[in-house]
Amino acid sequence: MNTLKHNRKHALVWVFLFAFALAPNPYTLSPAFSGGPGSASVQILKTDMSPRAMGMGGSFVAVADDIYSANYNPAGIGQLYIPEATAMYLSGFEDSKLQYLAFGMPLPMTGLAGLDKPGLAVSALFSQNGNFTYRLINPNGTVSSSSMDAETNKVLALSYGEKVYSGEMNLEGYNAKFEQYLGLSAKYIGSELLGKYSASALAMDAGWLVREPNLGFTFGAALSNYGTGIKYRAKTEQLPSILRLGLSYQRPTILDQSVLLSLEHDSYMNESLKSLRAGLEYHFEKYFNFRLGYKAMEDNSGMTMGLGIRHEGFALDFAMSLANEVFNTSQVSFSYKFTNWRSSEYKKGIQYRDQEEVRPQPRKAAKPAKKVPAKPRKSENIPANKDSDFFMLY
User: Fold this and answer.
1) Mean pLDDT of 168-193
2) Alpha carbons 82 and 46: distance in angstroms, whole number
């Protein structure tokens, strides 16, 4: 009973944090779902940051089980069981580029809900949206030109997630097990136009995950980029706030293979836009991942695909979109899970895909060598009866 009261007390802390995160923002210029397509600034915040997620059509809010969860659903950071680091590079239309770095790990302490160790992640995003050429006609008739960056952005984020509930429920004779995770991210956004107009903003992400590990279903919900407007000169622009809702299903198939299906609906709250995304990931023999996805109800509709190669703690992932010539992008990332990291106190339930092969295990004491009875001499006569302590099978 005392433990239950303790967990409820800490759960109230999470309720307060979420209420604060989602409270109306006095700095927002207009209510949600106002404005039109493209009316929000810093559009790079709508870009997929993970080749794995991009290969699945961007349907990742209900998957959220790796370091890239910070960009889709910070509640997934609570599922980190060993440290992870990643570096991603994106090449887009003409000279647009994006670089992303992140590191996350479980903390060596119990979380606010008192159930498990929470996860913490830090990330940095840098983008360059092409060049702008300025041409000036001089009084003598000559033309002089200069080149400058059209737009550069940087986003620094700190993400936190943890398990806040774990229990069982009897549903028509089926003993269902439920796990819930909550997470928050704080972001600093800096932007510069034409090399001389700079602005900054603060934003917050909030996420929720509900898992049924026995059946393999996960529901995810997240609100991203909710914060202050960004002001370059006299006009303040809104950030592209996104409400994500999704469902995923993951099950083993044969041998060491497994399949993951995901469906997600996104609402761009400040632009009156919506998106429907679906993805598939098939995991082959602990080493290979094949991904397909599709995006609908948006300008950048079309197929996506991706490949992943894993060996021990290393992972190399690649993805590309197949929409049209303007929106086609490709991503590549290199990730590493610190599989040598050990914590005898931290235990993680059975997870999906390759997590079993890198799961921390407590060191076992060496077993004492078995004593093998000495072979009898030929001259000795050993009776062969059922009470003998030693016998041989031929």
Assistant:
1) 89
2) 28
Q: Which residues pair with 242 in a beta bridge?
A: 224, 268
- Cα-based distances in Å from 187 to 156, 157, 158, 199, 206: 6, 4, 7, 14, 11
- 206 contacts 64 by C-beta, under 8 angstroms: no
Answer whether residue 375 shows pLDDT above 70. Answer: no
Domains and CATH numbers, the chain: 2-358 (2.40.160.40)
Average pLDDT over residues 348-366: 44
**Residue 203 · residue 226 · CB < 8 Å:** yes
Task: For residue 82, give the nearest of 61, 60, 100, 107 by alpha carbon.
Answer: 107
The answer to whether 79 and 63 have CB atoms below 8 angstroms apart is no
The model's pTM? 0.75
pLDDT band at residue 367 under the 50/70/90 scheme: low
DSSP class of residue 51 equals H
Task: Tell me what pLDDT residue 183 has.
Answer: 96
**At 176, is the pLDDT very low, low, confident or very high (cuts 50, 70, 90)?**
confident
Report residue 345 as tokens: 């106190």
Q: How many angstroms separate the Cα of 288 from the Cα of each of 191, 281, 291, 292, 298? A: 38, 10, 10, 14, 30
